[in-house]
Write a structure and sequence with these properties.
The complex is a heterodimer of chains A (160) and B (418).
Chain A: E1 2-10, E2 13-20, H1 27-30, E3 31-32, E4 37-38, E5 54-56, H2 66-76, E6 82-85, H3 90-103, E7 109-112, H4 114-117, E8 125-129, E9 134-138
Parallel strand pairs in A: 2-5, 5-6, 6-7
Antiparallel strand pairs in A: 1-7, 1-9, 2-8, 3-4, 8-9
Helix pairs in contact in A: 2-3
Chain B: H1 5-11, H2 17-32, E1 38-40, E2 44-46, H3 54-65, E3 74-76, H4 93-108, E4 133-134, H5 137-147, H6 158-165, E5 167-169, H7 176-179, E6 183-187, H8 192-195, H9 200-212, E7 217-220, H10 228-241, E8 248-249, H11 259-263, E9 270-274, H12 276-286, E10 296-299, H13 306-316, E11 326-331, H14 333-341, H15 344-350, E12 353-357, E13 373-376, H16 379-387, E14 391-394, H17 397-404, H18 412-416
Parallel strand pairs in B: 2-3, 2-4, 6-7, 6-9, 7-8, 10-11, 10-13, 11-12, 13-14
Antiparallel strand pairs in B: 1-5
Helix pairs in contact in B: 2-6, 3-4, 5-10, 9-10, 9-12, 10-16, 13-15
The chains are: A alpha/beta (160), B alpha/beta (418).
C-alpha cells in the first residue's frame, strides 16, 4: 500500500476502485446524469460507470453545468466515491457543496502532485482521506495490469 | 472570509432562508479558494435555468418556495426548449413540462427572461472592469476577454447564490494578479489569409483551450481588426476543450494593448507555438466523416448575433434550403424580435431556415428528429454534438450556408494549401 500526500478540497472520506483518465472531463456533455455513465463516445472512459469508483482525472473542462450533473449524481447515489484531480476548478467544487446543503451528502475531493497522480492506475484500490490529506493506494497486482475492463474492479473481491 | 455586518446578518439568516443558503455557498467557496472578502457584483447571469435533471429543479423550486429574490439585475441563460414553439421542434411534453417548471422558478426569483447564452450582445452588457457573476462558459470567457469585465466561471447554483446575495467571493479573475497573462501563444506558419478567416477562430480556440489548461493565454499574431463574432467563436471553443475563462489577444482585447501589458510586467512562464499541423489536427478532432449524409446544418452556437443574422438573411434571400436536410439557426428572442420587426425573419423562413429561440440544438431534445450528421460553424457545437453521439463536420458560416443551399463549399483549400 502506497501513501500519497493529498491536498483536501472538499473534506470527507471515500474509497473505491480507481477509474483513471488522462483526459479532462466535463460532467455536462461527457456524463449521463440519469445513469452516471460516461456517454461521450470520444472520451477514453466511454461506457464506464462512475458510481462507487474513485474518479481520477487531471482537471475539468467545458461547461458550468458540471455542478448540476454532479448534484444529480449525488442526489441519486450514482456519484463517484471520491474525485482526485491535479487541479480542482471551482466549478467542480460547487456540486458537492450544494449536495451537502440539500441532501446531507457530499463527495470528497482532493488534489495530488503530478508525481503522486502518475502512480495511480485504473483498478487500484484507493482510500481517499480528504480530511487528513492522504490517499492510500493499493496497487493492482502487476499481472492484471492492462487486463482491460476497469468495470471488474468494482465487483466484490477486487477490493481489499 | 471577512464579512461586513450586513453580510454577516444575511449569513445568519436575518434576510431569510434563501439568502442564508446562498450566502453559505458564496462564503464556503470563498473559504475554499482563498478569498479574504466578498465583492459586490452589479449583475448576474444564471446558467442553472437549463433543465438537465431533477436535482436542479429541486434546488430552484426550493429557493422559489422560500420567497427568495435576486438582489441584482439577473439575466437567464438558455432553457431546454423553444418556449413558444417547442412542439414544432418535437420536444417531448413531459420534458417540456419540467423545463417550464424550472423557467417559472427562476422567474419567481426575479430573473429576466432573456433565455440566451450570448448575454453580452444585448440586455445587461457590463462595461470594462465591472464585477459580475456570470455562468455559461462561453459568456464568461467573452465577458473577461472581449469586454474586460470581471467574472469567474460561476458554476450552476453558485451563479444563483451570487445573484441572490449580490456578492461574489474575491478570488480568481476578479483580482488583478490572476488576470495577467501566463503563457504566450505564437502563431507559427499560419498564413495571413487564414488569420483573417472566420474558419480559423473556433479551431484556434479549441486548440488553445486544451493547451492552456487553467493558465491565461496571451495570443500574438492576430490582425487588429478581428471581428467580435470571431472572438466569440474563439472563446466558446476554448471553454469547451478546456476551462478558458480569459485570454488576451495582443493589440485586440482591452487588457492587452501590448504583450507587456498583457503579462502585467511579468515574463511568460512558457511559450506555446501553434503550427498549421496543430490546427489541422484540432480541426480533424472536430470534423470527421465525408460531407454526404448531413441532415442538420446548425449555426448560432453561441446564439447568433444580429449582425451575423443579417448577413445570413442576405445570403439566403430568394434561395431555398435543400430538402434533404434541416437548417437551424439558434438565437435569442431579442435578436429574433429585431429580425421580425425589420422584415428579415420572413426572408429567412421563406428560404426554409428554422429559427430556434431560447435554446439550442444541444440543450433541447432533438432525438425526435433522428439526426445523424451535423454540419456547424461552431467548435463548441461540434464538440458537444460529437459527445452526444452525432457525426459532426466543422466549416465556416459561409460554407455551412453554401452546403445548406446546395452550392459547393470552398474552404478546405485554405487549410491544406498552406
Amino acid at each position: 500500500v502506497e501513501r500519497l500526500i493529498a491536498h483536501p478540497v472538499i473534506p470527507g472520506r471515500g474509497e473505491g476502485a480507481a477509474l483513471v483518465s488522462d483526459e479532462p472531463l466535463s460532467f455536462w456533455g461527457d456524463v449521463d446524469p440519469a445513469t452516471g455513465r460516461v456517454t461521450n463516445p470520444r472520451h477514453p472512459l466511454h461506457g464506464e460507470r462512475l458510481e462507487g469508483r474513485v474518479l481520477v482525472y487531471p482537471q475539468g473542462r467545458g461547461s458550468c453545468t458540471t455542478s448540476g450533473i454532479l448534484l444529480e449524481l449525488i442526489r441519486t447515489g450514482r456519484a463517484p466515491a471520491a474525485i482526485v484531480n491535479l487541479t480542482v476548478e471551482p466549478v467542480l467544487a460547487v456540486g458537492p457543496l450544494v449536495g451537502e446543503a440539500l441532501y446531507g451528502r457530499t463527495l470528497p475531493l482532493v488534489t495530488l502532485s503530478p508525481e503522486a497522480f502518475a502512480r495511480i492506475r485504473t483498478g487500484d484500490w484507493l482510500v481517499v482521506d480528504a480530511i487528513g490529506g492522504e490517499v492510500l493506494c493499493r496497487q493492482l497486482p502487476a499481472d492484471t495490469l492492462g487486463s482491460g475492463d476497469g468495470e471488474n474492479a468494482t465487483k466484490p473481491g477486487a477490493g481489499p | 472570509v471577512n464579512l461586513t455586518a450586513e453580510e454577516r446578518a444575511w449569513l445568519d439568516g436575518g434576510a431569510g432562508e434563501g439568502m442564508r443558503l446562498s450566502m453559505a455557498l458564496v462564503v464556503r467557496m470563498g473559504e475554499l479558494f482563498g478569498a479574504d472578502r466578498l465583492l459586490p457584483v452589479t449583475q448576474a447571469h444564471i446558467d442553472a435555468c437549463l433543465y438537465t435533471n431533477d436535482a436542479g429543479l429541486e434546488f430552484a423550486e426550493r429557493l422559489a418556495a422560500l420567497g427568495t429574490r435576486v438582489r441584482v439585475p439577473t439575466t437567464l441563460n438558455v432553457t431546454a426548449r423553444d418556449i413558444r414553439r417547442w412542439q414544432a421542434f418535437r420536444v417531448p411534453p413531459d420534458f417540456a413540462e419540467k423545463s417550464r417548471r424550472l423557467e417559472a422558478a427562476y422567474l419567481a426569483l426575479g430573473c429576466l427572461p432573456t433565455w440566451t447564452c450570448a448575454p453580452y450582445e444585448q440586455g445587461l452588457v457590463p462595461r470594462f472592469g465591472e464585477h459580475v457573476a456570470w455562468g455559461e462558459s462561453n459568456a464568461v470567457a467573452y465577458a473577461n476577454t472581449v469586454i474586460g469585465a470581471r467574472t469567474n466561471r460561476y458554476a450552476d447554483f453558485l451563479d444563483v447564490a451570487c445573484a441572490v446575495a449580490g456578492r461574489a467571493p474575491a478570488f480568481g479573475l476578479h483580482l488583478d494578479g490572476p488576470r495577467r497573462g501566463q503563457v504566450l501563444v505564437v502563431l507559427d506558419d499560419v498564413p495571413p489569409a487564414l488569420r483573417e478567416h472566420p474558419g480559423l477562430f473556433p479551431v484556434l480556440g479549441y486548440h488553445v483551450g486544451a493547451l492552456a489548461g487553467e493558465r491565461v493565454p496571451v495570443i500574438e499574431g492576430l490582425p487588429p481588426a478581428v471581428r467580435a463574432t470571431d472572438l466569440k467563436a474563439f472563446c466558446a471553443a476554448g471553454a469547451s476543450s478546456g476551462v478558458l475563462a480569459l485570454a488576451h489577444v495582443v493589440g485586440v482585447t482591452p487588457e492587452a494593448p501590448t504583450r507587456d501589458a498583457a503579462f502585467g510586467g511579468t515574463s511568460p512562464r512558457e511559450t506555446l507555438v501553434v503550427t498549421m499541423a496543430d490546427l489541422r489536427a484540432a480541426r480533424e478532432r472536430l470534423s470527421f466523416g465525408p460531407l454526404d449524409g448531413i441532415d442538420l446544418v446548425k449555426v448560432g452556437c453561441p446564439h447568433l448575433s444580429l449582425a451575423d443574422a443579417l448577413e445570413l438573411a442576405e445570403r439566403v434571400k430568394g434561395r431555398r434550403v435543400r430538402n434533404d436536410l434541416q437548417f437551424w439557426v439558434s438565437t435569442s428572442r431579442a435578436v429574433a424580435h429585431h429580425l421580425a420587426d425589420s422584415g428579415h425573419l420572413v426572408v429567412l423562413e421563406a428560404s426554409g431556415v428554422r429559427i430556434l429561440t431560447d435554446t439550442c440544438a444541444m440543450t433541447t431534445r432533438i432525438d425526435g428528429w433522428g439526426f445523424t450528421h451535423m454540419l456547424t460553424n461552431s467548435a463548441k457545437q461540434a464538440h458537444y454534438a460529437a459527445a452526444g453521439g452525432l457525426e459532426v463536420t466543422l466549416a465556416s458560416l459561409e460554407d455551412c450556408v453554401a452546403h445548406a443551399l446546395g452550392d459547393v463549399a470552398l474552404e478546405d483549400g485554405l487549410w491544406w494549401s498552406a
